[in-house]
């Protein structure tokens, strides 16, 4: 069912410093900061040859990343995203397997404009998993 | 400098259950458990089309994963690994950029038989980063 690893999302307390570190110290291809007000984050994409890293920083008052950074002030890996062909079929299979889909259990439109859902980290070794329909 | 994302390593409290979950619930290609006594872990590789996931479980009395699981009993993402062409040049560039290389700062042979080094998580947004020479 799951396909490519679409991205690894890292919550960071200082987006500019982290972007500079990936660009200058690690020598990666780093994009400009992009505000995504509908998702409560500002994102910097780091393009690797086979996948991407998303640096996430809170935007606005209801950011899903703010509480994570309160618990992890120096930042940390926030979630990993796997691609699926059919998000509805994926959700059904996951529920049948006993995994909890966050929210009301139905896919919503994610930060890339594609249908996504998130799985409960307690069901997956403490990892927040996003599934994105490609 | 950094190239492909070689793998995401997830520490898990129950290797068999986690492997079954990735195979049956997430429908991924899951390999057999492999003991790596020199590295204090038993590993299950999950092959995705563009990268891999490594499920890590402690093996032996001096496992580097045991303390992580004590802090995170349900598991969690332990490290991410980026590929580099020249590990010596990478170490020199990182030290010049002020990043701390763990251990004595020199590369050692990693779990895939290639030279690796690890960077201090406090220097990289709370993420433990492995660099592997390919």
From TrEMBL, chains A, B:
Enzyme Commission number: 5.1.99.1
Catalytic activity: (R)-methylmalonyl-CoA = (S)-methylmalonyl-CoA
A Pfam entry, by short name: Glyoxalase_4
Species this chain originates from: Palleronia sediminis
Family: Belongs to the methylmalonyl-CoA epimerase family.
Signal peptide residue numbers: none
Gene Ontology terms describing biological process: L-methylmalonyl-CoA metabolic process
VOC domain segment(s): 4-134
The keyword Metal-binding is assigned to this record: yes
PANTHER family in UniProt: METHYLMALONYL-COA EPIMERASE (PTHR43048), METHYLMALONYL-COA EPIMERASE, MITOCHONDRIAL (PTHR43048:SF3)
Coiled-coil spans in chain: none
Protein name, entry field: methylmalonyl-CoA epimerase
Top-level taxonomy: Bacteria, Pseudomonadati, Pseudomonadota, Alphaproteobacteria, Rhodobacterales
Broad EC category: isomerase
Keyword annotations: Cobalt, Isomerase, Metal-binding
Gene: mce
